[in-house]
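Please check this one:

***
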Amino acid sequence: MRKLRKVRLPLLFILTVMLLVSTGYPVKGQKVEAAAAKINKSALTLYIGDTYKLKMSKPAAAVSWISSNNSIVTVTLQGKVTAYKKGTAVITALEGKKKSTCRITVRPRTEAQVSKKIEGLRNKYPQGMSWDNSKLYVSKYEPNVIGGGCYAFASRISDIAFGYSPAETHQDFEKIRIGDTIRIGDYHSVVVLTKSDTSITVVEGNVNSAVNWDRKISKEDLELEGFQVTTRY
């Protein structure tokens, strides 16, 4: 009968194995579970009309995106969110049975923010820049309408200031706000820069085939011509 021979393992080897196991370092034969992918933002604040692309950190499988309230925030299959209304919504990314969330708070824009955005366009669209009826544009709030000339200019300025904000219309001078688009007499469109109790100043395109800043229009003239306001607040 063969005798069993005792094998003495070096103390250093034993301590090394114990250290690897205790620290979670993978050793031969040990199954390691991959860490779940996470959204790059756990919380986010947007203004109405803003968009943002959420991303997953190293997803191992296909990711599905879900919004808890589509009337406030929508999300595409690629994780692009769009803010439509004041409120809070939770975006959930599902990767198999694992999930990660991002809480999005949507706030309304202020007139100060809109004014700053529009005033910052004076260099891009300077006084006298060529702008006639050959300039066409499809606005974000009227995607089925292709407009030219003054309409195209006003819609573009509005989209830059408000993003994907939805639009409403009215005909009340007292409710006019900075950034509103006004259709005057169904023949000319302008964007409001400032407003007082008796007048507005505007920026407009296709005035003698050019861009025009700071024209003053009185309340009396607006009411005489007839007007419709498109607001995106």
User: Anything to note?
Assistant: The chain has two domains: 38-107, 111-231. The first strand starts at residue 43 and ends at 47. Residues 1-7 have pLDDT under 50 and may be disordered.
